[in-house]
Structures are given as structure tokens and as C-alpha cells.
Task: structure prediction
Amino acid sequence: MHDADLIHRHALAPGAAGLSKKFLDTHVIAIGASTGGTEAIREVLSKLPAEMPPIVMVQHMPESFTGSFARRLDTLSALEVIEVKGGERLRPGVACLAPGHSHLFVRKTAGHYTAELSKGEPVNRHRPAVDVLFNSMAAVVGIDATAIILTGMGKDGARGMLAMRKAGAWTIGQDEASCIVYGMPREAAALGAVAEVVPLRDVAARLLAHLRRLDLGV
Result:
């Protein structure tokens, strides 16, 4: 990273998260979105400090746009944002975006988590699908995870989020009033998958408050 990048990120950082190294190394955040999600994800990431657990994200969009979207988020956030190529180790301070051509899932190898890709069949008519990511999080990360479902058409992510909640993860859904399309969050809420419903403007703050409580064990 160049000096200019470091200065840029320092200027953007909303402040330290106040999370322990152990927590940063063991927790993982997953985000899913579709219609309206590009701006919703930007809104959330831009309010987060660089000191965050690893983040993995699925946004429904064509493969020709995911690389440029990741680069745009990288310039607008204190976090490092990358498009997943496959096999990357999940690291604190890094947000990993699924490419538009493949499913993204999380694997645990030798005591750490990695971002993996699959060209499997579309799920809920999508590849990448939020359900694929969330289901892998439920199976692999379990109670050490947080899931966020943002604006989007359809039902992708609802069942995966329910699996994550049943596995002990905390789950946040964007509220109807702030959604461009209240489809995915509504379907997740209808299944009982959403633990907390939050306006988009407050998602980052609620996420940080939740992570701090977890880190303190309260």
C-alpha cells in the first residue's frame, strides 16, 4: 500500500472500533444485497473503521461490474475492499466481494477462514447467491458470525440467514422504509431469520455496538 493510500484511509476512518485482536481474528461478517445494494453497501462500509473483523459480501450484479465496484468501495471506505479471486485468507480490515460469475463461500483451513469460489448452478436464479454464502457461514463460522441483509428483490439470502441465526449468529435486516426494494429483508424477516431490523443509516452503528458487546461478553 502506498503512503497516499494510508493517508487517504486514515482520513476516512470513522474512529477505532475498540475490538480486541482475538475478536478481530475469530469473527466474520457477511453481507448480502441485490437491487439498490450498491449504494446500501457503500453506505454501510463508508461508516465502518478499518479495525473490523473480516467481511464477505455478495451483491447481485454482472461479472463485468464487480471488479470496478470493489475498487470504488475501496476508495470510499477505510477498509480494504477486494474482489475475490479464490483462496484468499480472510483478514481483519478487509472486505471481500464475490465476483459476478461465481458463488462465494467460506471454508476453514488450518485454523483460519478462506474465501472460496464455485461455478455451481445458480441458486434462487442467482450466481453469486447470498444463500450460498450465508449457508457456508452457518456451517463453518456459526456463532462467531454476524449477517446483514440489505435491499433487494426476491428471496435470496432468507433461508441462509435463518440457518445462520439457528447456528447462533446475530442477524440484521434493513428496514422497509430505507430499502429500494423490500424483498430480501422482508423474506428473511418473515422466516424469523432477522434478529434486528435497522434503517440503512444506522446499520453500521448497530453493527459496531453489537460487535463491542460480543467482544466484552455481555
Notes: DSSP finds eight helices and ten strands in the chain. The first strand starts at residue 28 and ends at 33. The mean pLDDT is 93. The two ends are 37 Å apart (CA to CA).
